[in-house]
Amino acid sequence: MTAARTLVPAAADLPCSGICRAVCLLLGLGLAACSSPSADHGQVQGESFRSRELLQSDSNRMATLAMKQNLESLFLLMDKLYRRNPAEWKKTASSREVAIGHVRSAVMERQPWQELQGRRDVAALSLALQPDFGGDRVAAFTYAAADMLVTAHGGRTSFTLVDGLEPQHVFNAARNLEIANWILNSRRSASGQPLLLSNQISEEGRNLSFEREMGKIIGRLDLIASYTTERYRRAVIGYGQGLLAGPFMQFLPVH
Predict the structure, then answer these.
(1) DSSP assignment, residue 14?
(2) Cβ neighbours around 59 below 10 Å, total
(3) pLDDT digit string (tens) for 195-218?
């Protein structure tokens, strides 16, 4: 009985021209993939020199940059919240962009926010997260969080050699943001709705960009708190090392 012949020819059975075309096609695809530009994820960029930096130590500069980035992260979160909660910016201005500008100006110029009834720091943050708060909650939350950060840094956004930081206050600010984030995601308004729509976890998709940006702020605060504590501790250790090593580091006479 004759064996059935396979329906798919072996490579040796293919015409030479067909094999050559297949090889050329694969090589062409490989070269195209290698020549395609990689995705641009941005570059690290430093700021231009300013004369004020002559009055800053490395730790001063680090704290100044962290504060600047934390405030910019809060403003980015404000924009995200306004996009998901458009009814809020309508309580403040005629457009989202104008509302963002008002809040940014109040934060940077350390001006009070009227809807917070003169409260600042954690008292303002607590009021902004009350279920019965009737004002622009996005603006109030952003302003109060920013004011709390600035207060934790001694009321400053830029630091020089004469400025000091209390690491426990910075550490407490990080914990306050964790608590505020939890309240924002769990507390409900009087009507049973979330205080603000922030993260999205649903059948349509997941959007945790708010959570990630908030995590960046908390991470920077914890780093500054740890770094400041370590700097003070190392200063004490260095002083002690100088006292102990002093007698052994004296130059010896040579004549």
Answers:
(1) S
(2) 17
(3) 888 766 555 655 677 888 999 999
